[in-house]
Amino acid sequence: MEGRLSTPVPEQARPLWERWLAGPPKTPGTWGALDTRQRWAWLDRVRGRAFLRAREERPPGHSYELDGRHVTDVPGLYLALGEAVNGPGGYFGGCLDALDDCLGGAFGHTAPATLLWRNAVTARDRLSRVLTPRGEPYDLFAETLDVLADGGLNVTLA
């Protein structure tokens, strides 16, 4: 549109956008080899697409499985949760508040449900001592488990 400036795609995100132009990923874990900055860009793309994508609401009692091998950083946590609930390229939160919103419905989950979190030790090791934007330490792994439980998702760590 004339008179409007568009924000250029950041250089580190350009290869990711090119992948997405060919279509959303069909294989789980496509983002696993990306570095943290690229994972944030991937999560932005997933989040932006979430509202355009039709989601299948599952009935109460559904079981999900999370592959935790690549949950080594904050965006990896949310990318893995998104895939577990909504498949490759799926979204299910990008922060704890958004995760809580997704657990409330209309994002593929209906409580109560179960989540088998495989390789949970990876996330526990990496996310138990993260920093808030103000530099304060907190246990994102434990807080995530609390939010999931409050949202009616019974988590089994494996």
- Which consecutive residue ranges, at least 5 long each, have pLDDT under 50? none
- Name the strands of the widest sheet in spatial order: 1-2-5
> Whole-number average pLDDT?
89
- Strand/helix succession: HHEHHEHEEHE
N-C termini distance: 51 Å
Principal-axes geometry comes out as globular
DSSP summary: helix tally? 6
Structural class: alpha/beta
Beta-strand content estimate:
5-15%
Largest sheet: 3 strands, parallel
Strand tally is: 5
Share of residues in helices: 25-40%
Indicate the radius of gyration in whole angstroms.
Answer: 16 Å
Structural overview:
The chain starts with 13 loop residues before the first helix and ends with a strand. It is of the alpha/beta class and 158 residues long. Helix content is 40%, strand content 13%. The chain has 6 helices and 5 strands; from the N terminus they run ααβααβαββαβ. It has helices at residues 14-21, 36-50, 74-86, 96-103, 120-127, 140-150, and strands spanning 63-67, 113-118, 130-131, 137-138, 153-157. The model has no long low-confidence stretch (mean pLDDT 89). It has a 3-stranded parallel β-sheet with strand order 1-2-5. A two-stranded antiparallel sheet has the order 3-4. Strand 3 and strand 4 (137-138) form a beta hairpin.
